[in-house]
Write a structure and sequence with these properties.
Shape: globular
Largest sheet: 5 strands, mixed
Strand content: 25-35%
Number of strands: 70
Helix content: 10-25%
Strand order of the largest sheet: 37-38-45-46-42
Distance between the termini: 25 Å
Length: 988
């Protein structure tokens, strides 16, 4: 590409949307015009079509616009002659056209104007657990007899027949029953409803489902009163609207009303009805329908300008405001981003804490009362682990420590896995039976991990379930021994790693011959991987090759020892037997004769290409097809391969993960708990907070005076410390301990000195009366001691060498407040023959500091070097500028006084051939005069698109003509067009 052509393409991008209106490489000095339209020398309006004639040209306004061609005005169908465009709810004018939209709970009819009720109950039962009842513009959940609706208005709670609180008898509340501080109950209503005078019933208002009205709704003393669009009349049901006044709108400009004496025309607010009784005259753009603006309308001489609320942007029609999806930007949130109208919210994965508005740092659970661990606590990334001293092991609650010599009852003994191999028709067959504690984890489309059984006490733990390990203690008949472990790797050709239910007919015909007699396989982990990895210098195999990595554990039973074969002898025999089984297993795997049985269903470990999944459609194992989408089996259920459904966990079992093949036995044999238990706490029988027992299950004892226990299922209570007592037994928090002084937030109670101590730097405490401070997440710290909120935790990292082409500088902890006494230094050193363009969208530095916090950009660290930019104040008005030097030294410093959000400043380096054009644009006051133009400089996506092409002009071709046109509003393109044309044709 020649230099002239590159220059042309870059400049065209700067006027994105002007493609086809300016010359190409031939438009440089000395080129000959073909005609006015193709050369862009015509003065047709942007919404007009230029048609060349032999000696001149003519301008015609596009369809949907009016005017003589050199001035074209959009025909606002929502205001003129179309009675709200015929829309029954909202009418939105767009350039050359208009569109109708409906309120929430309605959908647009096929005619594009009327609005019809949406039956939310058709979609996943409206999210209701039991009964979904549709209504005009809304819906509500109801419960079967004996249940009542919970506060989330979707799930149902079983109602007991005893007691006086909301969980028990039906107190007659139409919607919500709340308990009062004095032990009584009071009724409340869902949002959009008012409580009736009888204090039990709820009256619908227009704020919920449009009051049940199809078109318009008005609140009255007796409830919503419905109305209809002028084209419609109210049906006898008082809610539905039927068409009328439909013939040419009765001749009315806007609103038409049928009366006993004929059609009556009226105009909306901002219009006046003319003497002819038909015509409506415009008063002022901003006085009429807000000028068609979604949010703000600002009247100007001869025109008007629309603006949007914060968190929204103006579309290219210069009227419509669209929510800015901040979650579509890079690096908006560290973990999870949830967009909302006008804003967004960042969330963190479990085990992490949000700081600085968008960042996530590892939570040090061990810093809060030792993570509630009885003994040691070890923090890990996103989680933590309790550890026990030698001779003790973790209790099932993963917090307490119990003696290894102790044992659980047989009902609580760990489930085991069984590996059986034998010959069927001369071919080796092997089966792995998961008798409990299975864990299925699909790594990817062609990879998964399946574990069965429980690892030995001294061995490895199962893969973690939501940050905790799964396991149980030994049975009373099993003496703890070091298990035998062996690892093997197998290869399967012409198969992919997909678990596939085996047909019941084939499973019945297969014989099983156990091979292991003197040892038992207690734990197996299978990892199947079909990922293709081409080796250097070799061609990829023609057939799919999968690999299975298996780890086995065999626990010896010492009661089988004899004088002729003691423990060492038993171990050697078991190792030999396991090796023989693995040898047989290798043969069965190579012949595709290895199966896994979980919860009564047999699965093939790998799927041949010609086969398809049975019972699950196009979904993988652990998933079912719902509404055309594959959905994992929810916690509280497990996947059953026959008939390919999600089955609730039976009483006495639970499942806290999605997409599993079985449920885990509850650690207690008493109180079988609920069917469909989603975690161990729903198993039932656990001691409540404030109580304990030797195994964490009933019967329980109240924590003695002077102790407390905040968690369920514990084997002991924590002492208040320092000789402090509690008012009564069975307390569940340190706040119940009778401390000498009540500590305020930012402090913790020292049980040795009985004084309140300020939380040290790097910690915080938001609550009253606590005996600990919380460590700041990740690598953050606080500016001072005595911090009361995690927002005081700030990341100090900043500065560094920046990229050659594009990048940004941002204050530490952005967009949270920057720390005190920060000092950051950045360097921008462009490649040869490139210059620097910087855009400061907004900057927040407190002016109260008398320039204690300052951002400066200059050629070098020397105070006497050429300065490009310097500020110590807050500016929400954007500015763009070019660097006065070829490289930049940038410094940000803060003092100990006030803090602020700081800044995020993007930059780009560009070819110095465009220096004149860039400076001409950024120095033009019209670039900042319009608030819409200012918002363009704050739009991260638009700035990124411009910077990408300024840095690399060939990126221009990534955008189609339509995409280019839709990027910027017409007024912005018009501003740039003259500058680009003058730059390309300086002598014309």
């Amino acid at each position: 590409m020649g230099a002239a052509a590159v220059r042309w393409h870059l400049c065209v991008l700067l006027a994105l949307g002007a493609r086809g209106r300016m010359v190409g490489g031939s438009g440089l000095p000395g080129a000959v015009d073909v005609d006015e339209c193709s050369e862009g020398t015509d003065d047709c309006h942007i919404d007009a079509i230029c048609q060349n004639t032999p000696k001149s040209y003519k301008c015609l306004c596009k369809p949907g616009y009016k005017g003589e061609g050199r001035q074209c005005e959009d025909i606002d169908e929502c205001e003129n002659d179309h009675y709200n465009g015929g829309c029954v709810h909202d009418c939105i004018n767009i350039p050359g056209n208009y569109r109708c939209t409906c309120f929430d709970g309605f959908m647009l009819a096929h005619d594009g104007h009327n609005c019809l009720d949406v039956d939310e109950c058709q979609d996943n039962n409206g999210g209701c657990q039991q009964i979904c009842v549709n209504a005009m513009g809304s819906y509500e959940c109801q419960c079967h007899s004996g249940f009542f609706l919970s506060d989330n208005q979707h799930t149902c709670i079983h109602r007991s027949n005893e007691g006086m609180n909301c969980m028990n008898k039906d107190h007659g509340c139409a919607h919500i029953c709340r308990e009062t501080p004095k032990g009584g109950v009071a009724c409340d209503c869902r949002p959009g409803f008012d409580l009736a005078p009888n204090q039990k019933d709820c009256t619908l208002t227009c704020n919920y489902g449009n009051g049940g009205c199809q078109h318009s709704c008005e609140d009255t003393d007796t409830g919503p009163m419905c109305g209809c669009h002028q084209k419609y009349a109210l049906h006898a049901d008082g809610r539905t609207c039927i068409e009328t006044c439909a013939v040419n709108n009765g001749g009315c400009d806007r609103t038409c009303k049928d009366t006993a004496t004929g059609v009556r025309c009226s105009c909306p607010v901002g219009f006046t009805l003319q003497p002819d009784g038909k015509t409506c005259k415009d008063i002022n753009e901003c006085f009429v329908n807000n000028g068609g603006c979604d949010h703000f309308c600002r009247n100007t001489v001869g025109s008007f300008e629309c603006g949007c609320q914060k968190g929204h942007k103006l579309l290219t029609d210069e009227r419509t405001c669209q929510d800015i999806d901040e979650c579509s930007f890079e690096r908006t949130c560290d973990h999870i981003c949830i967009n909302s109208p006008g804003g967004f919210q960042c969330l963190c994965h479990r085990g992490y804490t949000l700081y600085g508005t968008t960042h996530c740092g590892d939570m040090d659970e061990c810093s809060v009362n030792n993570g509630s661990c009885e003994q040691g606590c070890v923090n890990t990334k996103g989680s933590y682990e309790c550890v026990c001293p030698p001779g003790r092991r973790l209790h099932w609650n993963r917090k307490d420590c119990v003696e290894i010599s102790g044992c659980l009852s047989r009902s609580k003994a760990s489930a085991q896995a069984q590996l059986s191999c034998g010959k069927v028709g001369g071919v080796e067959n092997c089966f792995l039976s998961c008798l409990g504690h299975s864990l299925f984890m699909p790594d990817s489309e062609n990879s998964y991990i399946l574990s069965c059984g429980v690892p030995g006490l001294q061995g490895k733990t199962l893969p973690k379930r939501n940050g905790t390990s799964s396991g149980a203690g030994p049975s009373c008949s099993d003496a703890p021994t070091t298990p035998i472990r062996q690892k093997a790797r197998f290869k399967i050709r012409d198969a992919k790693c997909h678990l596939r239910p085996r047909s019941q007919e084939r499973a019945k015909d297969t014989l099983r011959h156990p091979l292991l007699d003197n040892c038992h396989v207690t734990f197996v982990t299978l990892k199947c991987d079909s990922s293709k990895k081409r080796r250097r210098g070799r061609k990829s195999p023609s057939k799919e090759v999968s690999h299975i990595t298996a780890e086995f554990e065999v626990e010896l039973k010492l009661d089988e020892a004899s004088d002729t074969c003691e423990a060492d002898c038993l171990r050697k025999r078991a190792e030999q037997s396991l090796q023989a089984t693995i040898k047989t297993l290798r043969k069965s795997i190579s012949r595709h004769q290895f199966y896994v049985q979980v919860s009564g269903t047999e699965y093939e470990v790998a799927q041949r290409p010609a086969k398809t999944l049975e019972g699950t459609g196009a979904c993988g194992i652990g998933q079912i097809l719902q509404d055309g989408k594959c959905v994992s089996c929810a916690p509280g259920t497990h996947f059953s391969g026959q008939p390919g459904q999600c089955v609730p966990c039976v009483s006495g079992t639970y499942q806290d993960m999605e997409g599993q093949l079985s449920c885990t036995p509850c650690p207690s044999s008493e109180g079988l708990g609920l069917a469909g238990a989603r975690n161990v706490s729903e198993c039932g029988g656990q001691c409540s907070p404030g109580y304990y027992s030797v195994d964490g299950f009933k019967p329980c004892q109240a924590c003695p005076v002077g102790t407390y226990q905040p968690e369920p299922g514990r084997t002991g209570c924590f002492p208040c410390g320092g000789g402090l007592l509690t008012k009564h037994t069975g307390t569940a928090s340190f706040q119940d301990c009778e401390a000498k002084v009540h500590c305020s937030p930012g402090h913790h109670y020292n049980t040795t000195t009985h004084r309140c101590i300020r939380c040290p730097v790097g910690t915080y405490q938001p609550e009253f009366g606590q005996n600990h401070c919380i460590t700041c997440p990740g690598n953050t710290s606080t500016d001072f001691d005595g911090s009361t909120n995690v927002t005081h935790c700030k990341n100090q990292h900043c500065g560094g060498e920046l990229g050659d082409y594009t990048g940004y500088i941002e204050s530490p902890n952005y967009p949270g407040d920057y720390p005190a006494n920060a000092e950051c230094v950045w360097h921008i050193t462009p490649p040869p023959k490139r210059r620097i363009l910087i855009v400061v969208p907004e900057i927040f530095l407190p002016i109260e500091d008398e320039c204690g916090d300052v951002l400066v950009m200059r050629k070098s660290a020397s105070p006497t070097s050429v300065t490009t930019y310097e500020t110590c104040q807050t500016y929400e008005r954007p500015i763009a500028f070019t660097s006065r030097s070829r490289k930049l030294w940038i410094q940000f410093k803060s003092n100990e006084a006030n803090s602020g959000r700081g800044f995020q400043v993007p930059y780009v380096t560009y070819d110095e051939d465009y220096q004149q054009l860039i400076e001409d644009i950024v120095r033009d006051g019209r670039l900042y005069a319009s608030e819409n133009h200012q918002e363009i400089l704050k739009d991260k996506k638009l700035i990124k698109a411009l910077f990408d092409v300024l840095a690399h002009p060939q990126n221009y071709f990534k955008y189609t003509a339509q995409e280019s046109k839709e990027m910027f509003p017409r007024s912005f393109i018009k501003l740039l067009r003259s500058k680009v044309s003058r730059f390309l044709r300086p002598y014309k």
